[in-house]
Amino acid sequence: MADSVILVTGGTGLVGSAIKHIIDTEPAGSRFGKRAGERWVFVSSQEGDLSDPAQTKKLFEKYKPTHVIHLAALVGGLFKNMKYKLTFLRDNMLINDNVLHSAHLTQTKKVISCLSTCVFPDKVTYPLDETKIHLGLPHESNFGYAHAKRMVDVQNHAYKDQFGSNFTSAIPTNVFGPNDNFELEGSHVIPGLIHKCYLAKKNSTPFVVSGTGKPLRQFIYSYDLAKLFIWQLREYDDVEPVILSVGEDEEVSIKEVADAIVQAMDFHGEYTFDTTRADGQFRKPASNKKLLSLMGGFEFTPFDKALKDTVKWFVENYNTART
Ligand code: NDP
């Protein structure tokens, strides 16, 4: 019998499948590889709809996890978030409450829930750090999703204060990599642009990027993020969240992203920016100081290499990718 059962909710998504990849491919027993006595279980919504309390309880009774990495969420890009605010608020609040409550009832030893830098206030001093989550209202474009995610931090503190629970959270910046959602409209910026550029090349049509291309973002490769989650699971025991990100000096503009996609896709057609579309927040640099001081350093995959590998994965898996 396994000494620890690590249940990964949202285990089939972008981040969950990356954790599975790292656990399966890193040397057994190494810092990020599978350890003796561990059983990793990766679940999708097919094993249970976590917005439903009874199905969530059943899932916990079935696997009896000792640890949970809670990734499952209703996730989407800027336009989807603006259009479906209540759905993003309600679904995510239900999912998070059911997971934390079931973990509490079954005496799960540790839960790491996944937040997002969207939780931070719109009007705040930069860089973002772990102390600034509740200092003001989030940006109105994703206020449903952001409020639902913020509540997880509130719940974690309440569980700790009332029951001594070891529930904590991670705050990744924008993630990209294999198995992302590459839909043209509802997805995040990198997978959406990769798909658009792929079609522009295939159909000999212009590659049109929404917005001015000027906003800046910090992007983390899903395989790097997976290692950081595994570190947090094994080596971090505190209720306060940790920002999982590349350094704040590694911001990339949307234009630089689009340029890198054009190059990786080997696209030579017309390439323009549709400046009538919304840009979202201009920038929101986040500090990874806490992470690096706790971990003692970490080698991130260079952005261009990670992007090239993601484009390669998309082209090779076009028929089965989420498009
Ligand atoms: P994906 O959309 O790729 O995957 C979502 C996962 O959640 C899928 O496995 C999905 O299962 C599962 N899921 C969704 N709804 C339910 C439900 N009601 N019940 C059970 N499972 C459900 O998401 P990501 O991997 O991109 O995101 C993982 C986490 O990281 C999320 O919490 C997200 O908020 C956070 N995050 C993501 C960022 C990003 O840039 N992608 C940035 C910052 C944070 P199924 O496929 O069966 O629907």
UniProtKB/TrEMBL annotation:
Pathway: Nucleotide-sugar biosynthesis; GDP-L-fucose biosynthesis via de novo pathway; GDP-L-fucose from GDP-alpha-D-mannose: step 2/2. Residues 6-247 form the NAD-dependent epimerase/dehydratase domain. This is GDP-L-fucose synthase. Gene3D superfamilies: NAD(P)-binding Rossmann-like Domain, UDP-galactose 4-epimerase, domain 1. It is an enzyme of class 1 (oxidoreductase). Belongs to the NAD(P)-dependent epimerase/dehydratase family. Fucose synthase subfamily. It comes from Postia placenta MAD-698-R-SB12. GO terms for biological process: 'de novo' GDP-L-fucose biosynthetic process. InterPro entries: Epimerase_deHydtase, GDP_fucose/colitose_synth, NAD(P)-bd_dom_sf. PANTHER family: GDP-L-FUCOSE SYNTHASE. The lineage of its organism: Eukaryota, Fungi, Dikarya, Basidiomycota, Agaricomycotina.
